[in-house]
Amino acid sequence: MIRPEKSGEAETAAVSATEADWSREACRRGWDPGRRLLAAIRSYQRLAGRKGLRGKLCVLRHRFWSAVSGADIPLNSSLGGGLLIPHPNGIVIHPEAEIGPNCLLFQQVTIGTGGSIPGVPKIGGHVDIGAGAKILGGVVVGDHARIGANAVVLADVPPGATAVGIPARILPKDPGERRP
């Protein structure tokens, strides 16, 4: 007998937090600056350590798509495969931050230093980060977590949890559970 699952759990189980789905990053026809920027970063990282014209062209391509998209994602970023940035405008990622596979970042997201915990964020696999969210300091965001729009995350977020607010707080999983 197959037990029916809640729709949120089924969607979470469908996307892996460990295995990158590279088809999510595939460039499509037409205007898609987010995917083009990621393609430039991936090309540069494949050629890392090599000198010559191809490396310089990758840097030039990255600068072009960074300017077009308005995103600040360094060439040496640690980005897991399957990253989606549908609206890359204003995204800022610290060069030492780690982002796991199959994550989703909306516009105006900042992942960097600051906050009460020294260091840079480590984002797990299949984390959805809403528009305008800030993840600051050496926090760890667990796999399958969700960060709400405009949330300011200054503390760790457990796997599967939803963090919202300024500063971010974890929402209870059970709707009947009392909130702090």
What would your notes on this structure say?
With 180 residues, the protein is an alpha/beta fold. It has one domain (19-170): UDP N-Acetylglucosamine Acyltransferase, domain 1 (3 Solenoid), CATH 2.160.10.10. Helix content is 22%, strand content 16%. The chain has a five-stranded mixed beta sheet, with no helix packed on it. A hairpin with a 4-residue loop joins β12 and β13 (169-170). α2 packs antiparallel against α3 (53-69).
Please give the structural blueprint.
Blueprint (H helix, E strand, L loop, with lengths): L6 H8 L18 H14 L6 H17 L8 E2 L12 E2 L4 E2 L4 E2 L4 E3 L9 E2 L4 E2 L4 E3 L3 E2 L4 E2 L4 E2 L8 E3 L4 E2 L10
Parallel strand pairs: 1-3, 2-5, 3-6, 4-7, 5-8, 6-9, 7-10, 8-11, 10-12
Antiparallel strand pairs: 12-13
Helix pairs in contact: 2-3
Quick synopsis:
Helices cover about 20% and strands about 15% of the residues. It is an alpha/beta fold and about 180 residues long.
Q: Please give the CATH class.
A: Mainly Beta
What is the third-level CATH name, the topology?
Answer: UDP N-Acetylglucosamine Acyltransferase, domain 1
Number of DSSP helical runs: 3
The CATH homologous superfamily corresponds to Hexapeptide repeat proteins
Largest sheet: 5 strands, mixed
Q: Could you say which structural class the secondary elements and strand pairing correspond to?
A: alpha/beta
